[in-house]
Write a structure and sequence with these properties.
Layout: H1 5-41, H2 46-54, H3 58-73, H4 87-124, H5 129-156
Helix pairs in contact: 1-2, 1-3, 1-4, 2-4, 3-4, 3-5, 4-5
Length: 158
């Protein structure tokens, strides 16, 4: 089974969705703890800290997108799956999904930690909300780069 290309292709898609989703869950959870603390003291800050808490959740969406694209390419979503896919081609799909899997996992956790600091900034200086969003948004850049590399790689497999 492990010598089957379809196995590696599906594993790559699963890792893209699973790792990026896990990273998002961790990042959103980290930021959520900080946001809850702020709302305990200042209930009116809910919407501002909620936005900052949600930022690490995008990597999970990106990972899911990569999984859908990969599964569509190999035919598992639209029918006509390539069950006899060559090992080399399966490994190419696997490798194409790795940037999103690894980049999504790491950047979501880092973004969650950065969002905690941004939430602390907003708690002390609510007028600095716009600036506070820039810090975790900078981490998002690397998740987007991983997303692009995975999309271009998957689409390049013929």
């Amino acid at each position: 089974m492990a010598s089957s290309g379809i196995f590696w292709a599906v594993l790559g898609a699963a890792l893209a969705a699973g790792c990026a989703g896990a990273g998002s869950a961790i990042g959103v959870g980290i930021a959520g703890r900080a946001a809850s603390g702020v709302v305990t003291q200042e209930p009116g800050m809910f919407s501002k800290v909620l936005i900052l808490q949600l930022l690490p959740g995008t990597q999970g969406i990106y990972g899911l997108l990569i999984a859908f694209i990969a599964l569509s390419q190999i035919g598992l979503l639209g029918g006509g799956a390539q069950m006899n896919m060559e090992l080399t081609k399966g490994l190419m799909y696997f490798a194409a999904c790795l940037p999103m899997a690894i980049g999504g996992l790491i950047s979501a956790i880092a973004q969650g930690k950065c969002a905690v600091s941004a939430i602390g900034l907003v708690a002390k200086r609510p007028d600095q909300f716009g600036k506070s969003m820039i810090f975790p948004a900078m981490v998002e850049t690397y998740a987007i780069l991983a997303l692009l590399v995975s999309i271009l790689s998957i689409n390049g497999i013929g």
